[in-house]
Amino acid sequence: MLGQQGVALSPDHGQVDVPPGPSLVQALTKVNFIVPALSGATAFFTMAAVMSSTPDGMQVSGHSSDLATFTIEAHVGAMYLPALLVGDLVNLVRLVISSTMNSKYMVVRLVACMVFLVLPQQQQQQQ
Prior knowledge:
By secondary structure, the chain is mainly alpha-helical. It is built from five helices and two strands. Strand 1 and strand 2 form a beta hairpin. The longest helix has 30 residues, at 31-60.
């Protein structure tokens, strides 16, 4: 007897007989693994080399060690702090889309959303 996706079901207890996948060695030697793994490793090592040499380069250029430290701290903060806001932003977009799908006030809601998202950014830039 065949179940979903052509997987054979055993008649006893409804257990699924799953065909065996590739071994670990076979999976690790496929191009679909090797290329992304090498790309990721290259990107990581390049980033680590640049970030490791940044404080030294700044100090050689005459900047203080406090400024070099602040630069690395600001970079790390700029990388990870937006992650705290992404969930709320996704929920806001989902709410706007779902509330405007069958509404006669779709244009008004979209304009209001854009005003609340774009207008504060423009005010900050002017200051």
